[in-house]
Design a protein that fits this description.
Pfam families: CTLH, LisH. The chain is mostly helical. The chain has twelve helices and four strands.
Length: about 230
């Protein structure tokens, strides 16, 4: 019994728990679709092809679109924002038209790249033409713009001491924007914007936490190993 557990809790042995699990019907086709969904969403092209060959499970999207997504992600993560915008408009112009916040974040990253390169005058003009109009209509975006513009208050961006501003120059900002763009592109292709498997695992942990209040049972504490542990009687 874990520390703090009530002795009135019902105890389910490992043998009982495993017996109940064996009685749950899980279709192989459903598992295959779940795996394929993860591989496609995460952009593992080679794994998608191999899994398709081995299981016969068809992906929900054309495999070629995975290369398009990887190309877009690479452009953003390398700071080539205009190239990324051109590519996504060529792929589907409605993506940015229907996602003004995403378009703002791409332009924000473009501004950051200009500041990073020390092109202050060009950055000021860019902010006024590309970003200021969006900020006027959305206070949250205006706050993001002001935070980005604060980068220019420092002569040497690499010596910025204010963490909230400095993080904009971190590669994490590029990856964050790349993830946002990738999710929008994926949703336009298949109505999915993130893999289902992580969501299911999060739901598993939430359900276990709720069940802990009533029952002592074998838990899955290590998601990677997926081994049952306990209960301690």
């Amino acid at each position: 019994m874990r520390r703090g557990e009530s002795s009135s809790k019902k105890v389910v042995t490992k043998e009982e728990w495993e017996k109940n699990l064996r009685e749950v019907k899980i279709w192989k086709e459903d598992m295959n679709r779940l795996v394929m969904n993860f591989l496609v969403t995460e952009g593992y092209v080679d794994a998608v092809k191999k899994f398709l060959h081995e299981s016969g499970t068809q992906p929900d999207v054309d495999i070629g679109t995975i290369f398009d997504r990887l190309d877009l992600r690479n452009a953003v993560e390398c700071g080539h924002v205009e190239d990324a915008i051109e590519k996504v408009n060529h792929l589907n112009p409605e993506i940015l038209d229907t996602n003004p916040q995403l378009y703002f974040h791409l332009q924000q990253l473009g501004l950051i790249e200009l500041i990073r390169a020390g092109k202050v005058e060009e950055a000021l003009e860019f902010a006024q033409e590309k970003l200021a109009p969006s900020g006027k209509d959305n206070p949250a975006l205006l706050e993001e713009l002001e935070r980005t513009m604060a980068l220019m208050a420092f002569e040497n961006a690499s010596k910025i001491s204010v963490e909230e501003v400095k993080e904009l120059l971190n590669d994490k900002q590029r990856r964050k924007t790349a993830n946002e763009l990738d999710a929008a592109v994926l949703k336009s292709l298949s109505d999915e914007k993130c893999p289902s498997l992580p969501s299911i695992l999060k739901m598993l942990m939430l359900e276990q936490n709720q069940l802990d209040e009533k029952v002592s049972y074998p838990r899955i504490n290590n998601i990677v190993g997926a081994t049952l542990e306990g209960p301690v009687i």
